[in-house]
Amino acid sequence: MTGRFGPVAIRKQLSMARLTQADLVDLNKTFEQRTPAELLSWCFEMFGSRVAALTSMQKSGNVVCHMLKTLELPVKVLFVDTGVLFAETLETRDRLIAEYGLDIQTLKPRRTMEQQTSEFGVLYLTPEGQQQCCTMRKNEPLLDVSGDFDCLVGSLRRSDGGKRAQCPILAVDPPMNCLRVNPLVNLGDKELQDYIVENAVIINPLHEQGFSTVGCNRCTTPVLPAEPKRAGRWRHLGPWAVYCGINPTDLDPSGSPAVEFSQDLVDRILDRETDFMI
What we know:
Layout: H1 7-14, E1 16-20, H2 25-31, H3 36-47, E2 51-54, H4 59-71, E3 76-80, H5 87-100, E4 104-107, H6 113-120, H7 127-143, E5 151-153, E6 170-173, E7 178-181, H8 189-199, H9 248-251, E8 258-262, H10 263-270
Helix pairs in contact: 3-4, 4-8
């Protein structure tokens, strides 16, 4: 049999291939010249219903949500409700649904905080416990939907500093077996704020109350004007805990990890053709 459903087509459909971070070097260089809107459009054109955006209801993530609305891209938005978020954060989510018409899927941990504390104690009082707590309340809910998406759109920016100063636009995420895309990496603080003001972007009210970043109510505090942006995250643990781990490039931006996609998808991402003839 030949044609659309012939052996070549079936073999191509079933063939799998690895996509490594090294494979993305040239494409990342090319994408440095793309605007956030162009990158978002590429994500939808490439992945269709297999792409979702992530937001924790902070400024950058809400800018991405506004861009999705403006571009009229029917992209699902994933939001992890850890069960211990500020009321303002949940209210911001509800406003994005009501006013932007976004399809926001709220992900939740397998245990309530009460169940977790009863079983493991108060984890977030030590650096090791904080990592375990973030894993259970933030990372596991996302991993539970890992088979649903090939691409996740984030909102990391290099101007955030720290490990994010070298954040690539495209990064493979082995635990989720997906491609992470950060369309705002080149957006500076002033550009971000200008976009928010000019477009009246819905913002978490906590940002106006001294919170430069927003996380769980147990581990997030306001920051002083002279402090680093992330000084309010896990302040009680000192300098050891700076990231929760939900963004893989925060943990290990180096090396060449890999994910596994269909050969056809890898070829389309890298804009190349594969000869399946023997």
